[in-house]
Specification:
Elements: H1 10-27, H2 41-44, H3 50-64, H4 86-103
Helix pairs in contact: 1-3, 1-4
């Protein structure tokens, strides 16, 4: 498990997000195709849909060792209207956790 640190950069989080995406694809029997940070996993990765994004969100919580503040899917915008890029997901995680740690 990677423990999230207050000092973990969005770029470091991107590496974790990509590693978890790769694990999800391989565990589901789908081929992994490396993604650019500007790619949207939903719609780009074979078989990766909104349900997979929820499962991946849970795995990210476990991998980072922190709850992600009740977000059902980190891969969909808060208004539910668009898929997010790996970079946007990473920035979202960083913001959520640093905000939460700031409350402590």
């Amino acid at each position: 498990m990677v423990r999230y640190s207050y000092h973990m950069t969005p770029e470091a989080i991107q590496r974790v997000v990509l590693a978890v995406l790769k694990d999800v694809q391989e565990l589901s029997g789908r081929e992994w195709e490396p993604l650019a940070v500007t790619a949207k996993p939903i719609g780009v990765l074979a078989g990766f849909d909104s349900l997979c994004s929820i499962e991946t969100t849970v795995l990210l919580e476990l991998k980072l060792g922190c709850p992600l503040l009740g977000s059902s899917s980190l891969f969909i915008s808060e208004d539910g209207n668009r898929a997010l890029t790996v970079q946007e997901v990473s920035q979202r995680i960083h913001k959520m956790i640093t905000t939460e740690q700031g409350k402590r």
